[in-house]
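Objective 1.3, modelling of assemblies. Example input:
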Amino acid sequence: MAKKMKIKISNMENDNIIEIKNLTKKFKDLTAVDNISFNVKKGEFFAFLGPNGAGKSTTIKILTTLLSPTSGSINVNGYNILEEKNKVRESFGIVFQDQSLDVELTAYENMHFHAVLYRVPKKERKQKIKELLEMVELWDKRNKQVKKYSGGMKRRLEIARGLLHHPNILFLDEPTLGLDPQTRRHIWSYISKLNKRENITIFFSTHYMDEVEKIADKVAIIDNGKIVSQGTVAEILEKQQRANLEEAFISLTGKNIKEESADNLDVIKQYIRKK
Amino acid sequence: MLLSNISEKNNYMLNTIYILWLRQIKRYARSKARILGSLGQPILFLVALGFGFGPMYQASGQGDFIQFLAPGIIAMSIIFTAMYTGMEVIWDKQFGFLKETLVAPASRFNIMLGRTFGGATVAFLQGVFVLLISTFFGFSIESYIYLPLAFLFMFLIAIFFTAFGTAIASVLEDMQGFHLIMSFIVMPTFFLSGALFPLDGINRTLYYIIRVNPLTYGVDGLRQSLILEGSFNLGFDILILSALALLAIFIGSRLFNRIQI
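Predicted structure (tokens):
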């Protein structure tokens, strides 16, 4: 108990809500994440960027207790992700990169399930579900089974669900992938408000560099499992001597990565399957 | 303060179990094809075996074969449904929904418990349907006083096999393993349980195999409470089945807890 208190206090002092020290994740011969370290401050809008297969999703899975690290020490909200999994899980919400809805249930039922499971107080449930489904323009179709939804609608529902409870940290793994500009703007402005109003730390990954330039306080770029650059957008641009983030991103991560990363993904998938 | 904290915690625990239970029920109620489909097999067994072997059974002086067979077929429909709902964990893994539950701030033990109760309820209902159907094929319940006891056995069988299915599904990666499990675990469990034939005078080796099969005690208990005939002590049946159900929940939740995606 005393020890935990100390961790809490030291955390408040340096204000880091996520602390990653020497994180490595290996799948057999493949090192998906290679000795990375970085911190995220409380209330920060943090962008975690990298080409496909660079290690973004693996890192997010480790931060959210879905995967165990091979080595390294990680604290989320002051709790160790290996020793205090339940405490960690109470600290965050997440929108996954790939689908995680129950397609047999309706949109409303998916939201309700989440609200109960993630401890949204009973009094607030209905109102919040309505507010969020209206935000992503699905309220009229709330009683349709999700299997009848289009890909974009599922994506929107997924985001609405992730925003239903207000945790300390919100992980968003490529949340706006495949959405039109209107919806993207809608969603980011909602998340921005959340971030400001409730001081929720946002940790997100995306391939849309314009989104990052607009809203991110800090950026970390990962490539081949290593952090290749981090800082504010301005700092990264200056270091790379580029005019915009996309140029800087490409100069940092090169052009021959895509093939490699496809292989990496296959190795990971095979590894997980064999396990 | 502390008390209200505890009751809040309990409340949340119950809510977690309830919402996962409800999900299983809803999924079941919505899949009309699945409900109908899983009634087909028991009916086929009742007709083909019940009427097919009936005259032979009667000729050997054992009485009405449908009476003997129906409890076994009820048990069959329960274990098939229970294993299937338990193994739905694999579907959830493949379709991504499992992640939604695995990162929730709820304990995985409660999540597993809710799923298992939900799946068991579904399997139990399926058993009740088959019980009703078998009365159309000439099955009659000997004594309605023992009906609650029959329901207890049906529920215990359902719990055990749902938890067992969940345990297996927690270590499997995809549905390819499902058929393997069906052929090498579920089918033998059913056929070698005393569901289809009486145990008196059978081959010794077979007898021992049947004695170590958990379903044997479920079928026996069910038969005793429905037609007042059976091979073992009723209390022993309840005891062993309850202990195994608890053990399956324990192991199942341990394995479920260890899932990585």
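Confidence is low (pLDDT under 50) at residues 1-12 of chain A.
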